[in-house]
Amino acid sequence: MTMYRSAPRISRRRFIRGAGALAAGTMLPSVLFARTGGRERLVVVILRGALDGLAAVPPHGDPDYARMHRELAIAPPGAADGALSLDATFGLHPALEFLHERYAGGELIVFHAAASPYRDRSHFDGQNVLENGFRQPLGTADGWLNRAIASRPVRAVAIAQNVPLILRGGAGAPVLSKSPIATPDVDEELLARLSDLYSKDDWFSARLSEAVQSERLGDASSDVQPPAMMNSPTKQVDRIAAAARMAAAVMKSEGGPEVAVLEATGWDTHANQGGAKGILAQRLRGLDGALRVLADDLGPLWGQTAVLVVTEFGRTAAMNGTRGTDHGTAGCAFLLGGAVRGGRVIAEWPGLAAASLLDNRDLRPTLDLRSVFKGVLDEHLHVDAKSLANLVFPDSTQARALDGLIRA
Amino acid sequence: MLQPEIAVLRFGLGARPGDLAAAAPDPRAWLRAQTRGPAQRAGTTTLAPSNEIFEAVLAARKERREERLAAAAPEELQAAGALLRDAYQPHYRAQVLARAQSAAVTAQPFTERLVHFWANHFAVSADKGAIYGLAGTLENEAIRPHVNGRFVQLLTAVEQHPAMIAFLDNQYSVGADSPAARRAAARGALAGVDQPKRRFGINENLAREILELHTLGVGGGYRQEDVTSFAQIITGWSIGGGRGRLAGGVPGKFYFRDELHEPGPKTFLGKRYAEGGLAEGEAVLTDLADHPSTARFLATKLVRHFVADDPPPAAVERLARAYLKSGGNLSQVYAALIESPEAWEPQPRKFKTPEDFVFSTLRALELTPGKPQEVIHAFDLMGQRQYTPGSPAGWADTAPSWDGSDALMHRVLWSSQMADRYEGVASPTEIAGAALGGLLRPETGAAIHRASSGSQALALLLMSPEFQRR
After folding, report:
1. Which of A292, B294, B320, B409 is most buried as measured by Cβ atoms within 10 A of its Cβ?
2. How far is A343 from chain B (nearest CA, A)?
3. Does B454 touch chain A (CB under 8 A)?
4. Average of pLDDT values for B114-135?
5. pLDDT tier at A255, thresholds 50, 70, 90
6. Residues of chain A found within 8 Å of residue B176, distances taken between Cβ atoms
7. In whole angstroms, what is the distance from residue A294 CA to residue A311 CA?
8. How many Å apart are CA A144 and CA A185, to the nearest integer?
9. What DSSP string describes A243-290?
């Protein structure tokens, strides 16, 4: 059978204007992004699967690093395939060239020995804690970023087909999602009739109106190519670059959202992780390239942008039996952008000596990621301290906001 | 009231014309009759078994190694990488097609849904290149035979399936004191070389996910030391027909490699297990299957899948009790589910996943996909590419993971594509009646009646709230 044939479709824009021609009940909300006074842009990139912070930000100055990380260790700056130098202790993985440029340009802060409050080693619970902003993985269905912007005149988009936990929640404006998968236009009359059909069902009604708004976002980004769907690391690299391109297009569009969340998978390197070259190096190069695309495409907006790159936890200090690393605790995070007061490493380094490790295996956390999040939300999105403490990150008094992350 | 509809739509995969009538005389008996024996795959596609696929890929790997050695230019290296993909791809595509065909036509849709449930519980992901063409074999070879059996049989078949072993890297996990490690160290000492120990160690990936995702559940009462110990217990659980120290065994079949196994007694969850080779890990699986945490974890997931995102505690309790009382007899657990009043409340509480939506659409329209691309297209659009949950936790089973605005628009798009291409003779009103029975709301009936074309009427049916929920 032939399953798909395309029919000419009428564009979405015309649908929105023309919807009033149908019965009053078919009218979709036409309020799109309200104009806001806020100029700041925030992008959060979630690396799912637990990035090895000791590979991405090698502590080459630590006397135990090479011994622990063995063939996965990145050589010191200056050596063949060596790290890109940050300071006497830390470097960047050689694949992270754009990040290194931004560090030199004063637009990158590198955090190390950082972790969410989660202390076990499940990806799924770890991601829940990273995104829900609580100390416990379960018991809440909304994310800290949603709560943070609920009271702000700020709109958010998830560059995905569905909204990740960090942006979920009932408060504030609905969060749209927009994936880099091209959608041919859907028949306007069908949408109007669906809107009518959903009129007694609030849940579907709300979702359809969001879906129509999301489609509008696509007007700005129709040149985004759908990513190829295959399995090699190269193609995962293409996916994150396509997502970055779409994020920039959507944020730049007229009345576009100020906040975007991107996701990238493929960091769970239990076997054959590689060092300066190999699987992880390819993924890091892809991430680095995607961040470059984001900066280039945002153009002048980059100057008021902060990008947070985070993962659910780090990996074991020692290489495992299959030339990879197992689930660990503390790792690295990045904050970059034209709005960032960068060119710094923020790390209280616990060291990799056996006695310093957590549970004899993991880099010990000395920085709570919520301190970073609070600092960014305070200085960049101007979320007030009381909301941060009570609403956004309950039970986080010991994680005080870091000051001075964002340019005054 | 509405019991046949609930049996067919909520427990099954949606109604084909005639399904509601078949279930009508006794909906519970209709369900119970499907909880015996293995799950037969329906449809016409022939699938290669995992060991044959594995062998074909071994040959491709060998060729790739040779080409890599000979390759000078980067594009030649890429071509070598493509060899592996080419060896796997037809199998992946056939598995995806076979799955959709079976879902579209099976007369045992409750059993089929259970197969899908367990395939998601024991998720492997074709995103991992090494198992791209093997991902679908786990469901057909390890799950279908045991879907109505005892959980320990299902569990053991899954953990010993090559797709699971390779997905979670266990074939490379080596006991530090295993014969292989000791021999290598001795050879190094003889040669005066400081033999790097790094080549010999455990990989705890499979052990951790068995505990966290397959049996006890996170918070089910295990600690890091149990993960490590369990990983040592299952060192040697491997696949036949590899290279070097992984040679030996029937290629592509589960193979226990004594020489990689960490010797000696081990303590796991406070219990001592004497050295027993393969039997050691099997004994742990038996104990895990009997554990109350496992009963609760599985009951919670089943109730979440069949009843509501927020599983009613009374139903969870009932299923967990049935599990423990029957010694993990799954058909008894399903019987408890069928007898749970919470599962029969008329208001549907589950928003269909893309899988639910695609399969129920195929059934409602009596379509049987004939080409893999037809199915692949649908799932790419809606974000649930078959056999690629990405992580060993499987696809999320709650609405917030599927109700994004982008995903919803893709559902509308696909609905209208399917409606456009419907070539059957039934009227939209007849199709709606056969698909939804008494669940069809008057508004939807009216919208179908008023639609400006047959295609639009069908798209409205497929996107109606009562068709989008179960």
Report:
1. B409
2. 35
3. no
4. 94
5. confident
6. 321
7. 19
8. 34
9. HHHHHHHHHHSTT--SEEEEEE------S---SSSSHHHHHHHHHHHH
DSSP β-ladder status, A84-85 and A91-92 = antiparallel
Apex B122 CA angle, B121 and B124, nearest 5: 120
Q: Region A140-144: what's the mean pLDDT? A: 87
Residue A388, exposed/middle/buried by CB under 10 A (0-12, 13-18, 19+)?
buried
CA pair distance B57, B68, nearest whole angstrom: 16
What average pLDDT is seen over chain B? 93
Per-residue pLDDT at B74 = 59
At A180 the pLDDT is 79
- Residue B467 sits at the chain A interface (C-beta within 8 Å): no
B38 in contact with chain A, both atoms CB, cutoff 8 A: no
Please check whether residue A41 is in contact with residue A301, taking contact to mean a CB–CB distance below 8 angstroms: yes
Cα–Cα distance for residue pair B465/B436, rounded to 1 Å: 11
The residue type found at B10 is R
Strand B254-256 relative to strand B237-239, pairing: antiparallel
The answer to whether A384 and A355 have CB atoms below 8 angstroms apart is no
Q: What is the DSSP letter of B212?
A: I
Q: Is B176 exposed, middle or buried (0-12, 13-18, 19+ CB in 10 A)?
A: middle
CB atoms within 10 A of CB B49: 12
Residues B359 and A274: their CA atoms lie apart, in Å, by: 41
pTM (predicted TM-score):
0.85
Q: What six digits make up the tokens of B203?
A: 């990989």
Tokens linked to B364: 């409602």
pLDDT over threshold 50, residue B178: yes
CA B426, CA B435: separation in Å to the nearest integer? 12
Alpha carbon distance B39, A51 (integer Å): 40
- Mean pLDDT (chain A) is 86
Candidates B265, B254, B193, B268; CA nearest to B225 is B268
pLDDT classification of A179: cutoffs 50, 70, 90: confident
Nearest to A270 among B169, B212, B380 (CB): B169
Classified as helix, coil or strand, B468 is helix
User: ipTM of the assembly?
Assistant: 0.90
pLDDT digits (tens, 9 = 90+) for B31-84: 999 999 999 999 999 999 999 999 988 888 888 777 777 766 656 656 666 777
Residue B191: its pLDDT value, please? 63
B144 has a chain A CB within 8 A of its CB:
no
What whole-number distance in Å separates Cα of residue A5 and Cα of residue B410?
A: 16
The one-letter code for the residue type at B275 is E
User: Is the Cβ–Cβ distance between A335 and A372 less than 8 Å?
Assistant: yes
Taking phi first (over 0 means left), then psi (-120 to 50 degrees means alpha), and beta for anything else, what does residue B383 get?
A: left
Residues A198, A211: Cα–Cα separation, whole Å: 13
